[in-house]
Amino acid sequence: MAKSLDLDLGKPAQKSQTAGRSSLNTRKREAGSLVDLNFKVTPEFKREFKLWAASHDLKQKEVLEEAFRALKRSSL
Fold this sequence. Notes:
mainly alpha, single chain, Arc_rbn_hlx_hlx, Ribbon_hlx_hlx
C-alpha cells in the first residue's frame, strides 16, 4: 500500500490580496514586445520551411510574417 504524502501547500490567497490585480494572461502586452506563437507542423514542413528561410538569408519569423501579409493581401 502506498504511503500518502502530507503536503503543506499553504493557504489559498485571500480575495483582498488579489483584488485589483489582473491575471498574467489577460494583461495587454507592451507594443513591440514579442510573445510565443506555438503550433504543430509535420517534420517535412518544418525542414522545408527552415531550409527555405536559410537559403534566402531570412529568419523564420520574417518568412512567417511576410507570408501572412501576402495572404491578407490576396483576400482569401
